Amino acid sequence: MAIKKSELYSSLWKSCDELRGGMDASQYKDYVLVLLFIKYVSDKYAGEKYAPIAIPEGGSFQDMVALKGKKDIGEGINTIIAKMAEANELKGVIDVADFDNSDKLGKGKEMVDRLSNLVGIFQNESLDFSKNKADGDDILGDAYEYLMRHFATESGKSKGQFYTPSEVSRIMARVIGVDQAKSQTQTIYDPTCGSGSLLLKAADETHQGVTIYGQEMDNATTALAKMNMILHNNPTAEIWNDNTLSTPYFKNPDGTLKTFDFAVANPPFSTKAWSNGFDPFNDLYERFKGYGIPPAKNGDYAFLLHLIRSLKSNGKGAIILPHGVLFRGNAEAEIRKNIIRRGFIKGIIGLPANLFYGTGIPACIIVIDKENAESRKGIFMMDAGKGFMKDGNKNRLREQDIHKIVDAFNKQTEVPKYSRMVTVEEIERNEYNLNIPRYIDSQEAEDIQDIEAHLLGDIPEQDIDDLENYWRVCPTLKDALFTTSSREGYFTLTIPQEDIKHTIFSHPEFADYTREIDTAFELWKDECIPILKTLDVDTKPKEVIDNLSESILASFADKDLIDQYDIYQHLMTYWMETMQDDVYLITADGWKAELSRVNGKKDEWDSELVPKQLVINRYFTDEKKAIEQLETDRDGIGRQIEEMEEEYSGEEGLLEEVKSDKGKISKGNVQKRIKEIKKDIAADDLEELNLLEAYLKLIDKEAMAKKQIKDVQKALDNKVIDRYKVFTEDEIKTLVVDEKWMAAISGDVRSEMERISQRLARRIKELAERYVAPMPKLNAQVDELEMKVNGHLEKMGFDL
Q1: Could you tell me which residues are beta bridge partners of residue 493?
Q2: CA separation for the pair 39, 53 (Å, rounded)
Q3: Average pLDDT over the chain, rounded to whole?
Q4: Of 490, 486, 483, 497, whose CA–CA distance to 452 is shortest?
């Protein structure tokens, strides 16, 4: 059975629960990631003669398993890790954490149990990496990123600097064009590489691969980066531990800074101690020459100038910095002017606030391109600060936000309130201030209240014109909803407010538009289904979703009203929630509809690839309808019981006698009370007896209905199980591709059409309600009500 990404992630995060209480959340990674590393390389390379990682005797994950329950397990794990480190030159990388630390892991049996449980989680059969194709699709790398994100989230403000959100990393990689790298001899560099996630996301964008270089000041974080490189199949990446500004490691033989084809960086924001260890006024590497010296207590421009100096003459790079670098004055203003005059800045991308784990302030990506810099006449600016989703206490870019940013930037597409090319002349007129709001007004237009409409009624023409994108698609729909008012510049709604939505949906032009969207989806579906049905063990899942997502974007690119990126997001969400796991199952095990127990329960079973409900809907509709009818009948009996209880419970209620101390009515209590009444029956007891017997019949009837449903359901289950046994591969493909994947995506596309009509109907209703009662009419109503109230008060004897 293949590893499901969702199960892998939850299992790995569960391992962190074993560490809670004894250490800060920022230290979880030192233990969990080492175990992940040992488990992965042991599964993948044990017994391989020419493996890139040697698995020494006594230094594998299986040796850790043998220590479970033993009192010296902590010391034993340290020994195993030390052997692995010794055999692969990984000292100081994987042996940083002490698994025999009683302060963090507990003393005696507490440590034994904690470490045994921790090893047991990684021992789970579903985490057998030897049978999974981590290479290429990098399931382990993705799991590593998942853990790093969660570690950063739990570590708090002071410990999140080791991780750059992967969404931001992907944007940076794509806007510097690293995918255009021609060979692995080309280089990429990160001077503040942290755990290496930014470097790796950039390298992932290449087809041929690139040579990776990184430097990181923090020792423990450098170890994370080196492990990360190995897990991502980049064991030759060169990662160095030292201060980049004071002691840059990568140099040419003559002592000058080595230069690279590409560079990316997410340095610490506005660090005050940036010049520790060297004299910036006498910088050996001439990084500040011709630009100016950054302020003594703010190192943002020091990192930017280091990155610029580290690029080849045609090099391209991107760096994340706080917005302050765009507009702060004094020394920084001078540096900014000198960089702009050299034409090095290709573009600036403003990002949403609260994306990063070390700070909540908004940041921007500054894109550097030295190629043809002397002829650059402008800077492409983007305000992408409004596109995100909430993810816990942080904001997070969605797939559609990433794609929209990259598309607009790489195509230099000007989008109102989002992006535009700003000429150097305009920037000079603004004294080299690059603050994005100076050049892009991203504020939504104010919804203006029309005083005349409030006084005299009807809807202002401007509000109707603001819906022009709808009228362009449905030209006569406007006439079906409105007529011109007797007053120039105003319209009157010609239908009741409650008919607005129906009028839109039923209008022929809107129906034609709906069919156009349906046709676009059907064409995309017809193109994709045959391709999806050819998935096999040689398929790369990431290539699958790349091709699907790009084709669906193209299918809806020229459609009015509907946003192609919204459609794209629906596909990507479904991929991440369901389809991704399915495709990994298929590429590992083929088109198999295997049944398994649900959560280990004896009587519950299902299939991950072909869910039981899918089979029932396809092959057993009559049985499904029969069960639904039985359930309806059962629910009807239940309602009769509830109605009887409600009517005859309470003080002196005829059912009050049969309630338990907890206020519940049981069949036993009812039967007991019936016997008591029959034993010594009186005329006054007949009503109670009849009620109890009727109640008892309903209880028995409900029990019989439940048993019948259970029996019919069991019979259906047996039929379904038998059906799974005879499925052909073609039947499985039809169920999965047509009736599972495409049906779900189709539903999401239709939901977008619903949103389009709802937005129009909601806005028209809002305008109608806003101006439905003009001021004179309201005043007349107030006067009328005032007269009525005064009349009542006079009748009551009040002197007005």
Answers
A1: 482
A2: 12
A3: 88
A4: 490
Query: Nearest Cα to 256, choosing from 309, 219, 180, 331?
Result: 309
Is 101 in contact with 195 (CB distance < 8 Å)? Answer: no
The yes-or-no verdict on residue 589 having pLDDT over 90 is no
What is the reported pTM?
0.84
673-686 pLDDT, tens digit per residue, is: 888 888 777 766 78
First to last CA, the chain: 87
Q: What is the DSSP string of 234-261?
A: -TT-EEEES-TTTS---B-TTSSBP-EE
**Cα dihedral 144/145/149/155 (nearest 10):** 40
pLDDT at 160 over 50: no
Residue with tokens 């910036």: 280
Kindly indicate the confidence band of residue 155, based on its pLDDT and cuts at 50, 70 and 90. low
User: How far apart, in whole angstroms, are the C-alpha atoms of residue 148 and residue 214?
Assistant: 18
Contact 473, 515 (CB under 8 A): no
Angle at 501 between CA 499 and CA 507, to 5 degrees: 95
Kindly report the three-state secondary structure assignment for every residue of 629-677: HHHHHHHHHHHHHHHHHHHHCCCCCCCHHHECCCCCECHHHHHHHHHHH
Nearest to 698 by CA among 739, 728, 670, 726: 670
- Listed in order, strand segments (DSSP E) in 125-225 are 187-190, 211-216
How many residues in the chain?
800
- Record the tokens describing residue 65, joined without a space: 């398993």
Residue 190: other Cβ atoms inside 10 A: 32
**Residues 133 and 30: beta-carbon distance below 8 Å:** no
